Amino acid sequence: MLKPPNSMDLPKPGSLFSSKSNFKLSMQLSRFFPSKTHIPISITLLFLFGPLQTAHSESLEDVLITAYNNSSLLQGNDYLVAIQEEQITQTSAGSKPTLALDLSSNYQAHSSSSMSNNDNSLGGRVELSSQYPLFDFGANELAVDIEEINKQVVLLNRTQIEHTVLLNAANAYLDVLKAYNLLELEKNNLNSLESQLEAAKNRYELGNISRTELSLVESRFTAAMGNVKTRDGQVEIAREIFNLAVGKYPDNLSATYFDVEIPIDIASALELANQNNPALLQAKLEVTIAQQQRELVSIQTSRPPINLSGSASTNLNLREFNETPKNNLTIGIRTSIPLYSGGRLSSALRQSEQRLQKARIDLRHEAKLQENEI
Fold first, then answer.
1. pTM of structure
2. Is the pLDDT of residue 26 over 70?
3. What are the backbone dihedrals phi and psi of residue 200, each rounded to the nearest 5 degrees, phi first?
4. Which residues contact 142 (CB under 8 A, 6 or more apart)?
């Protein structure tokens, strides 16, 4: 059975093609093909057809690098990583002091019935306030840890996208080679049938064969012409799919032979999937996140934070500038204990427990899927 690994070496965005040597290492099967996709049969076509010897030909490595660099999915996912990093920064700010400057002005109109006149005033207030979290029972640190794990989930999701992009590019590369070779095969067959047709016509003129026999040869030649047209259409389709997967049309592709390292037995394959499979690692991280979120909710609902607050303010009379301002300085410790919230806190606890149970079920389901795939 698949078991959680002791440690996870998560890839960084763009690290898969940081150099050509790293790229060649990434050609291992466990890193190249997504876990939920069987190895396509078309990969064997690379060994069935001879290499296309052309000048300045593109190898499979060149195609994969181009697809990686042109992928809009990967470019968009880089922003998701940056967004999550900003979320970590925002959450970390919860343990730091805050400082705010408040400015206000007010106008008051007083009516005196005895004096039959109005006593109006125009005032202003300037206040500098600060708050510092003294003790939150580890809630903010736990929240930061959760966001750090969420970043790992985003990176694993990016790895899955990398695998999908590379697999689509490899399949498109092989399909183009297949289409061109099948087209060449049909053309050779057409040339052979054309020679047979010419020979059959000569024999018919000499009376060696009947009209029926000549018609059979002509029908085979006509069918071969149709097959060439069909194969030519398949080449165009393969080229369009290649352009969609790689970001450019194929140009002088060459069949490249490479060695793929695969596990020697099922046990080794299961262990490899347990260590490297992004979907499985992501499911494990989701369980960890759910566990920490349950703990965070428990802290937030039962142990309110204790904050140190202070402020310095001055009140000004904007009509009498010679009047001495009224200054005020306050400092204190503040906490808020929830007495009744209409069941919201207990509901939040139950919700966090239900999320944890769902994450565990998803992990078992994902592990079973990977085991069945292998």
1. 0.73
2. no
3. -65, -40
4. 292, 295, 296, 299
The mean per-residue pLDDT over the stretch 196-200 comes to: 93
What does the angle CA 167 – CA 169 – CA 175 come to, to the nearest 5 degrees? Answer: 100
How would residue 254 be classed by pLDDT, with cut points 50, 70 and 90?
confident
Domains delineated in the chain: 15-373 (1.20.1600.10)
Q: Find out whether 260 and 28 touch, Cβ atoms under 8 Å.
A: yes
Contact 152, 339 (CB under 8 A): no
Residues 6+ apart with CB under 8 A from 360: 287, 290
Phi, psi angle pair for 323, to nearest 5°: -70, 140
Residue tagged 């590369």 (tokens): 173
Query: Which two structure tokens, joined as six digits, stand for 223?
Result: 């069918």
State phi, psi for 64 to the nearest 5 degrees. Answer: -65, -40
Give pLDDT, residue 106.
81
Mean pLDDT, residues 20-42: 39
pLDDT value for 122: 77
Over residues 148-174, the mean pLDDT reads 95
Which residues face 331 on adjacent strands? 310
Q: What DSSP state is assigned to residue 12?
A: P
- To which residue do tokens 């040869």 refer? 217
> Confidence band (pLDDT; 50, 70, 90) for 110?
low
Tokens representing 38 are 């069987």
Q: Report angle CA 313, 316, 322 to the nearest 5 degrees.
A: 130
Which residue in 215, 162, 173 sits closest to 18, CA to CA? 162
| Order of all β-strands in the sheet with 98-112 | 98-112, 117-135, 306-317, 326-334
Q: Please report the pLDDT score of residue 57 as a whole number.
A: 80
Nearest partner of 32 among 193, 326, 258, 333, judged by Cα: 258
Amino acid at 337: I
